[in-house]
Design goal:
Helix content: 40-55%
Structural class: alpha/beta
Largest sheet: 8 strands, mixed
CATH topology of the largest domain: D-Maltodextrin-Binding Protein, domain 2
Strand content: 15-25%
Order of helices and strands: HEHEHEHEHEHEHEHEEHHEH
Number of strands: 10
CATH superfamily of the largest domain: Bordetella uptake gene, domain 1
CATH architecture of the largest domain: 3-Layer(aba) Sandwich
Shape: globular
Radius of gyration: 22 Å
């Protein structure tokens, strides 16, 4: 028998592996999926990650385990997924902070666009400006008048430097031409507790975090950052009634590492869209102060790029120094 050439042997080996590769792709997922986010327990990203994760778990027939890697405005979580194997088993719940960090930081351990396979946006939401119930400011106009009288005396919280909450507070001050003092926290419920305790004056956060405390009477909502009144914040005036043209709405969305197979990206995108059509999830998002907002992977990528450019403009306008 003539000897088999090296090339023939390689071709034969590849042919024998082809059915296994096809089976592996067809079997996705065949083990638990890790869903990481970069903010504290009880925050908007955490609540929505668990809501969506539960729906995906039901449809994919595999556990979807939510893991928190908080800090650095969400970039620790983003970096973990950017560096993970591109096999569809490591996902990240990105927030608007993903684009803020890309605009604000001099360097990042990952590329905010190139290192991710975007799947779909999940939700869209405004922020609420609130103070503790005992605070002397009864309206946004009164709060800004206080800040104008005593620059750097009125403080506001965020879930970290480079978070969207940080940018909302900075943009609010810049638009009103007043100086607000930023006091960042690590995330989750810490900012709202600091405001309730009187350690910080102003909360600029999501309704997910603020609404229960507004309903209980511990916080007073002064304004909402959407262009028009928000359904889950009835009676709360918009910031634009005091500062015409002011509007900030942010987003949450899911991504995987760059290089994730197209078949896996398409499957996950389809399952996310299916989940977001479910009336119970839509209602749960509404209760959390958000609105379901699915997109295609291509639409999400374009949105992320445009948001990075938008926040670069804001950072330049406000005069915030770039972070190391």
């Amino acid at each position: 028998m003539a000897p088999i050439s090296r090339r023939s042997a390689l071709l034969a080996g590849a042919a024998s592996l082809a059915p296994f590769a096809a089976w592996s792709q067809g079997a996705y997922p065949n083990r638990p999926i890790q869903l990481i986010h970069g903010f504290g327990a009880g925050g908007n990203a955490d609540v929505v990650a668990r809501l969506v994760g539960q729906k995906l778990q039901e449809s994919l027939k595999q556990p979807v385990v939510v893991e928190i890697k908080s800090g650095a405005g969400g970039s620790i979580a983003s970096n973990a997924v950017a560096k993970a194997a591109p096999d569809g088993y490591s996902l990240v719940m990105l927030t608007g902070a993903h684009t803020v960090s890309a605009a604000l930081r001099k360097s990042m351990p990952y590329d905010a666009l190139k290192d991710f396979a975007f799947l779909s946006t999940v939700s869209s939401f405004p922020f609420v400006v609130a103070v503790r119930a005992e605070h002397p400011a009864k309206s946004l106009a009164e709060l800004l008048a206080m800040a104008r009288k005593d620059p750097d005396k009125v403080s506001f919280t965020s879930v970290g430097v480079g978070s969207t909450q940080h940018m909302v507070g900075e943009l609010l001050g810049a638009t009103a031409q007043v100086k607000l003092l930023h006091i960042p926290y690590r995330g989750g419920g810490a900012p709202v507790q600091a405001v309730i305790a009187g350690d910080v004056d102003v909360l600029t956060d999501t309704l997910t975090v603020a609404a229960p405390h507004i309903k209980s009477g511990r916080l007073r909502a002064l304004a909402i950052t959407s262009a028009e009144a928000w359904p889950s914040a009835p009676g709360v005036p918009t910031v634009s009634t005091v500062l015409p043209g002011f509007e900030v709405r942010s987003w949450l969305g899911l991504a995987a590492p760059a290089g994730t197979p197209a078949e896996v990206v398409q499957k996950l995108a389809a399952e996310i869209h299916k989940a977001l059509k479910a009336p119970d999830l839509q209602q749960a998002l509404a209760n959390a102060g958000s609105a379901a907002a699915p997109s295609s992977p291509e639409q999400m990528r374009a949105m992320v790029g445009s948001e990075i450019a938008r926040w670069r403009d804001v950072i330049q306008q406000v005069g915030i120094a770039l972070q190391g």
